[in-house]
Every structure is written in C-alpha cells, then in structure tokens.
Amino acid sequence: MNCSRAGSAAQREAHAAVLRQVYGAQVAQIIYVAVHLGLPDLLAAGCRSASQLATAAAVEEQTLRRLLHGLIALSLCCETEPEQYALSEFGQFLRADHPRSLRARILFNTEVLSPIWGSLLETARTGTSGAQRALGMPFYEYLQHHNEIGELFDRTMADAVRYRVEGALDAYDFSGFRTVVDVGGGNGAFLLQMLGRSTGLKGVVFDLPAVAERTRHAIAAMPESDRCTVEAGNALERVTEGADCYVLSNLLVSLADDEAAKVMQSCRHAMADGGKVVVVEWVMPTGGEESDKLILWDTASMDLNMLAIHGAGGWRVRTRAEFERIIEAAGLVVARVVPTASAVSVIECAARSRGDS
C-alpha cells in the first residue's frame, strides 16, 4: 500500500470525525425540531409518507422532506421505499413512549441549556454564571419560578436514572437497609426504582419545599407510594432523622465544597447507629486512571454543564481525592467505592470511629 495514500485516508477520516463534532449544535437542532414536531411519535406505528407527516405536523411538505433528509443522514430515519419514511433502530429512542426515551433530555438541552452554553466563552473568561446571563436568575431559582420548565427538568432527571443511576442499583445492594432517605431526591425516580427492587424497604424523598410539593403528586400514583413519603426541608440545615441509609444521588455536583460538607454532616447527625451515607455521582478520572470513552464524555460534559450553568463558583465533578476531603470534613470515612456500568460510581461512607485518624 502507498504510505502517503494510507496517511491521507487516515487524515481525511480524522478530519471528518472532528468535523462531525463541530457540527454538533446543528445536529442537536435537527433532532430537537423533529422531536418538537412529534415526528418520532407519528412514525412509531410504521411507515408514513412525507405528505402524511407534513399534514399531521402542520409543516409545509417540502420543508418536512428536507428535515427528513437530515434525520436520514443522522441514521435516525430511513426511506424504506420512495416517499415512505420510518424510524431507524436509533430513532426509536426519540419516541415519547419508548422505555428509554430521550425526548425530555432533547427538549431540555435545547430549550434551557443551549442558551446557557451559548455564553460559555464569557463564563470561561469571567467565571460568572451562564444561567444568570441567559435566564436572568440562578438556575434552580428559575426552575422554581417556571413550573413547566421545572416539570421538564424532573422528567429529564427521571430519564437519567435509566442510563446513569440504574447502573448503581445493579452494582450496589440497598436491600439490607430498612429506610433510605434520598436527599435532594427530586421527583423520586431513583428511590422508586430502588423500592421496586427491594419490597421490604421504605423510603423518604427529602427536598426543598417547591420540589417536594411536585413530588408528592408524582409519587401518589405509583405502586410504591405506600412505602414512600416526601418531606420538605433544607439539607444544609437538617434532614429526616433515624434512617439507616442516606443517599446523595447527583447532588454534591451542584454544591460548593463547604455546602457539600454541610449536607454530609446533616446526614451523619441524622442517621441511626451503624448507618451509611451513600453518594452516587460522577468521579473525575485523574492521571493514569482508565475510563471508557462514553463514561469519560458523560463525566466531562456534566462537569462543563456545571461550569456553564453556575460559573466557576465550585460546582463541579470531583476527583476521588476531592470527595474524600469533603467526606472527612463531615466526620465520615470512605468505606468503599463501587464502580458501575454507567458513568457514576457509588461511594459508601460510614461514621468515623474514635480510632480513625
């Protein structure tokens, strides 16, 4: 083989790979528009023509056809025969009724996060919050003031349970506990999954009052509602007392170090003798630590998400050493760190005994 041609081919492939990443914003917009128009759900039952889709979506037919060409190029749709379109295997994840639907994530990323990420350069230069610039107020305050966005955020986090936190339930056995308090548990998706696996377990979702009110309504219709209650409060001050397990799932990433230590202290003071604090979060790889490419991307993108939303104020994905400093400051010790098949790890913490240095 001609080495110069082989090198040239490799260079073209590398260039194409980078170019696909450069086009990421446009790709996200194509998918967002398709989902917003409901095209994946219109195609859920099978093939339809561009004319049928255009009428159902209230879009001009030629415009709709051009959008379909984009979805085909992204391997999300296919043209089974002339003028007959169907979802591909990948495209199934865009349907609202798919068990691993990405619909809420797609809508939330584009409608809420994209304007925030649009000022990432300013955030990188100044360290100031992108949410404050794009939304006019801090991120979580915005969610509380806009119920429909708050509900979309809850649905997005529930979807994240399936591809991030579900791995934690496979890797760590919660069935040995009596009562689990999910601190900052949002809409209760993680705890409900846990209760569904362990029928002898009881649970409490603990979150801020505005979130807790939405969660009560969401949980009431669930089969596990008889074993799950919702309590409101501020974890920086206190949490529900007397449980033998306190779960912090993807919570510390949104807190500065001093706040994270206070929440951990609240859990330590509240837990029963012999209890555990279980942190389920991304752990940033360092140095020679190996990491799967998808896990590394999910971890790095979450870290940059915190930067884009909140600025350089301390909200971030932490390394294991950074977690250990916070945990020790709260009077706890790391008992073990359990890796999972997803991007998060499970950090089990116990009360520090007198013999611990």
Written overview of the protein:
With 357 residues, this protein is of the alpha/beta class. 51% of the residues lie in helices and 15% in strands. It contains 15 helices and 9 strands. The strands form 2 sheets. The chain has a 7-stranded mixed β-sheet with strand order 5-4-3-6-7-9-8, sandwiched between helices. It has a two-stranded antiparallel sheet with strand order 1-2. Helix 11 links the parallel strand 3 and strand 4 (202-207). The radius of gyration is 23 Å and the shape is globular. The mean pLDDT is 91.
List the helices and strands and how they pair.
Blueprint: H1 3-22, H2 24-37, H3 39-42, H4 50-57, H5 61-73, E1 77-81, E2 84-87, H6 103-117, H7 120-126, H8 130-135, H9 139-145, H10 147-171, E3 179-183, H11 189-197, E4 202-207, H12 209-220, E5 228-232, E6 245-249, H13 257-270, E7 276-282, H14 293-310, H15 320-329, E8 332-339, E9 344-351
Q: What's the quick description here?
A:
51% of the residues lie in helices and 15% in strands. The protein contains 15 helices and nine strands.
Number of helical regions: 15
Sketch the major β-sheet.
Answer: 7 strands, mixed
**Helicity, in percent?**
40-55%
SSE pattern: HHHHHEEHHHHHEHEHEEHEHHEE
How many strands?
9
Overall geometry? globular
Cα-based radius of gyration, to the nearest Å:
23 Å
Strand content: 5-15%
Distance between the termini: 63 Å
Low-confidence regions: none
- SS-based structural class? alpha/beta
Q: Strand order across the biggest sheet?
A: 5-4-3-6-7-9-8
Mean pLDDT: 91
Quaternary structure annotation: single chain
